[in-house]
Each structure stands twice: as structure tokens, then as C-alpha cells.
Amino acid sequence: MKSPKSAVGSSAYEGVVPNAPKNMSELLEGFLEYARYELNFSPQTIKKYGKSLEYFIRDIGDKPVEQYEVQEFVHLKKLMMDRGNCETTIAGVVYAVRSFMRYCKDFLELDVIRVKQIRPPKRFKREVIFLTKEEIERFIGTIDVNKWNGFRFRVLVEVLLGTGMRIGEVLSLNRRMIDWEKREAKIIGKGNKERTVFFTQRSLDWVSKLLERRKDTHEAIFVTRGPINRLDRNDIWRFFGYHRKLAKIYKKLTPHILRHTVATNLVFNGCPIVHVKEILGHERLDTTCKYYLGVDKEKAKKAHKQYLEMYD
User: Which single residue of 64, 76, 133, 183 could bond 21 by disulfide (Cβ 3.0 to 4.6 Å)?
Assistant: First the structure.
């Protein structure tokens, strides 16, 4: 087995010596530090990767990293599917393990499984779920803004609907990021890439009201009630579930569904797909096309009739 590279001055890598097999859990801290400061992953991604690797250890076991075999990754997917985990959740764990194994092979020079052998589950294209205008109004109408938690949740929903941001991007917003005159903010989005997001005036008005009601000086836009900390995505899921039931909406309702709602509204209103790509922060145009072109079945049917029936 090859010896790992030297990491002088970095306590996270001390103790990694030749011919001393290390369990995954022992290398986890060093990997997360490497991902944060060498790969420049965002804090949100680091947290997600840490949780994903803990899930892997729980399901497959903690042992020297050189001993993991291909069949164990197949078994991991089986266990997660049996539990009812969706393809996205399974893929998240698989990608985290792939990144960890690449770190072990390329940085620590350990004789681990080839990364290409660790395959994420095949993802099938499904119909995009989004809310209609009437469903949005019902949903918003159930939120009691006279209570602090309700008011904060209403502002969160308004920002999601007014920007099309991912939930992690919204929760990472700080006061100083927002340019109130230009109605925009520079954020660090998916893949740790900087991008500019745009706000509707309505969403900014709600953010302004939220900041006016706050007495603390915490930099985050969305914070817990006390002690004051940045709001975490785990703090908000119950609000979506609760208000979905109150609004009698019988489809999935998550922050990402609101992002789909923004995108489909843009497409329905004639926004060029290349602008939809920029608003959503997609790196590739084909990603935007894959999800949102052809999403309006009624308009597609009318187009079919208009452009093809001439040949009847």
C-alpha cells in the first residue's frame, strides 16, 4: 500500500502513516477539511457530505477504506431503496462516498476501490410538479403572519417564489448580500459558484418587514427565535407539511417545488429558456431544457394541433 502524502502543519491529517489502515470514520474529519479548504466546497455541501458519509457507515459498517468492495455499494442502494429513499437521496450519499474515495486515492494515495465503480442510481425523468396560481394563493392564505414563526415562514415562501433560489441558497442569505436598489444579491450557489439572483419588489418588501421586526444583529436573514442562530433547512420541513395539509393541496410541496413553480411560470409567460437558465442558476442550458421545455401539456397539445393538423 502506498504511503499518504505529507500534511505538515495540519492536525486533521496527523497520524496518517504508512501501513496503518484507517477506518472511514477516522478519515472523515480530514476529508471534510480537505473538501472545505482545498476543493472550496460550501459549508452547506460539507454538512450534507458529512451526514451522507455517516449514513454510509451506519448501513455498510466502519472499516479500513481499502476493504470496501463494489458489491457493498450495490447493497447500500438496496437498503436505501427498501427504506423508501428516493433516487435523489440515494444519489447524494453515493456522490459523497465517491468524493471521499477520490480523496483517499488521490490525496492520501490509498489503494481504494476505483471511483468509476461506485455508480449512482439511474434517475428517470418524471413530470415536473409545480403549484398553480390558485394553489399558491391557498397555501399562502393558511400562514398566520401574526405569529413570529408564521411571519418568518411567509417571508421565506415569498423569497422562494420571488427569486427561484434553492432552499440552501435562501438560508445562506446575509443582510449585506442584498443590493436593495438593484433588487439583487450575489450568492454562492450549487457547486460553490458565485451567481447573481434577482428579487421581485414584493419579496424584498417582505424581507424588509422581517428585518424591521428583528431586534438582533445576526448577519443571517433567516434566524431561529432563540438562541439566535442561522435557520437550518431541518427547521422548516414541518411548516411545509403543515400548511400543505391546511391548504388541501394533494401534491408534493417542498421548497424545491416552489422553485419548479417559479420556473414553469417563467416558461408559461414566454420567458426565453436561456433567461430561465440564468435565473435558476443552472450551469448547463440542457439541464433547464430537460426539466422545463414541454412542461405545459395543454399548450403542447394546442401547438400539435396548430402545426401538424395542416397535414391531415
Answer: 64
All CATH 1.10.443.10 domain ranges in the chain, comma separated: 133-304
The C-alpha cell of 193 is what? 459558484
Burial class (CB in 10 A: 0-12, 13-18, 19+), 250: exposed
Rounded to an integer, what distance in angstroms lies between the CA atom of residue 289 and that of residue 276?
9
Per-residue pLDDT of 189-202, as tens digits, reads 776 778 889 999 99
List, in sequence order, every residue forming a beta bridge with 195; answer none if it has no partner.
187
Asked if 119 contacts 131 with a C-beta cutoff of 8 angstroms, the reply is: no
Place of cell 455541501: 45
Closest CA to 282 of 195, 221, 209, 178: 195
Sheet with 178-179, strands from edge to edge, namely 178-179, 184-188, 194-198
Output the DSSP codes for 279-307: HHT-SSHHHHHHHHTT--HHHHHHHHHHH
45 CB burial (10 A radius; 0-12, 13-18, 19+):
buried
Residue ranges of the chain assigned to CATH 1.10.150:
11-117
Contacts (Cβ under 8 Å, ≥6 apart) of 308: none
Question: How confident is residue 161, by pLDDT bands cut at 50, 70 and 90?
Answer: very high
**Domain 133-304 coded CATH 1.10.443.10:** yes
Q: What span, in angstroms and rounded, lies between the C-alpha atoms of 271 and 265?
A: 9
pLDDT tens figures, 196-219: 899 999 999 999 999 999 999 999
* DSSP label of 29: H
Place 4 in a pLDDT band, splitting at 50, 70 and 90.
very low
CATH (one of 1.10.730, 3.30.1890, 2.20.110, 1.10.150) for 11-117: 1.10.150
Q: What are phi and psi of 117, to 5 degrees?
A: -80, -15
Q: Which residues pair with 23 in a beta bridge?
A: 64
